[in-house]
Amino acid sequence: MADQKQGFDTLQVHAGTEPDSATGARQVPIYQTTSFVFKDAEHAARLFNLEEVGYIYSRLTNPTVMALANRIAALEGGQGAVCCSSGHAAQIMALFPLMAPGRNVVASTRLYGGTLTQFSQTFKRFGWSAKFVDFDDLDAVRAAVDDDTRAIFCEAIANPGGVITDLDAIGEIAKKVGVPLIVDNTASTPYLCRPIEHGATLVVHSTTKYLTGNGTVTGGCVVDSGTFDWAASDKFPSLSQPEPAYHGKVFTEVFGPMAYTFHSIAVGLRDLGMTMNPQAAHYTLLGIETLSLRMARHVQNAREVANWLEGDARVEGVTYAGLPSSPYYDRMTRICPRGAGALFTVALKGGYEACVAAVGRMELFSHVANLGDTRSLVIHPASTTHRQLTEAEQARAGVAPNAIRLSIGIEDVNDLISDLDQALG
Ligand SMILES: *Cc1c(COP(=O)(O)O)cnc(C)c1O
User: What cofactor is this protein dependent on (predicted)?
Assistant: First the structure.
C-alpha cells in the first residue's frame, strides 16, 4: 500500500490499491457488479447507518471506483475523493454540500466554455448563481464576495488561453472570508500543480482529459483537502448541523476531516446519482499510471511548438505561459513549477477566416472538442466551445475571434511543427 510520503511516480502506480484480497490479482479488478452481499441484517444496518464503512450498492461506492478516488486523492495531497460520471458532474457534486437557493459562487471569467454555461444558465434552475470576475483583479474578487457566497471557483491553468491563476492570492482571500476555494485542476493535473498547497479546499477534475490521457472515457473527481473547518460558521449547515437528508446526522461531528467526502457519497451520490462506472474507473487507473511521463512530454512539446509559433511571421501572438515573454511566466514558476501545461491559444494575423482555413488544413492535429489527449488537438473556440457566449463574454474569457486553441500531444514535435507550418498556409 502506498502512503502519501512516497514520490509522485510511485503514488501514480500504487496509491489506493493493493493486491486483490480475494484473488491476489495484481492489477485492480473491474468489479462489474451493482450490489454487494451483506453478512447479515445487523451488518446491513451498520452500513446504512454509516457506522461501518463497506460496500452496499455501486451508485454509492464500488471497489474499482474507490481505488481510483483514493489514487487521485493521494496525488493531490487530499484526505478523500469522490469520482463522478463526468467533469461537469464533479462540479455540481463539489458545490452540492455547500449551496442552497439564494447562494452564489464567485467564479473566474476564464473557464472552460461548458463551465461558463453551466454556472451562468443551469445554476439558475437550482436557485444558485455565479458572479464572474477577472481573477487577476484581486480587489474585484474581494468585492464580489458577499454574505451569500459559499465558494470561490477557478481553474489553475485556465481555458482556453493557458493563463495561470494566482492560487496563493485567491486562496488568501478565500481564507479571510471563510469560504472554500475550489480549483479545477484539469488542464494542469497534480503533476504540474497541487492546488491544496496553494490554499484550495477542494480540487475538481475532468478525468476525461489528462488523467485518463487517451480519450476513451468521460469521468470526473472531487478531492477534499480535509482541512476546512465547516463548523466555524453557520454557512454550511449540511455539514455542520443535523442533516435532514441523512436522519439528522451531523457530518462534521461524526466524520471529522472526512465530513465533506462522506456527505458527498452518502447524500450526493445517493440522491444525484452522478456515479462513475467501474469500467471507466479501470481505463482511468490505467492512464494515471503514466501521468508524469506523459505530462513531461506534453510540456516539452508545448514549449517547442509555442516557441516556433511565436517566431512565425503569420502569427500575431501566442498565450503560452511557459514562454519567457508571457506576463504569466513568473507566476507559472511559483504555481506550476514543472511547466505551464500543453494548452494555449495562437492568434493569427489572417483573422477569423485564417483560423477556419488553418483548422481545415491540419492533418496530424484532430479538430475535436476535447483536450488533454495523447493526440494533438485543435479547435476554434469562437465558433465552437465558446459560441454560446456573447462577444463581450468571449473577450472576458480570453477567446479572440482570430485565435485557435491547441492541445499539444506527445507525438514527435517535428511532425507537429510541420503540420502547423503547412496548415498556416
Ligand atoms: C472538459 C473539462 C470540463 C468538463 O469535463 P467533462 O468530463 O467534459 O464533463 C471541466 N473543466 C475543464 C477545465 C475541462 O477541460
Answer: pyridoxal 5'-phosphate
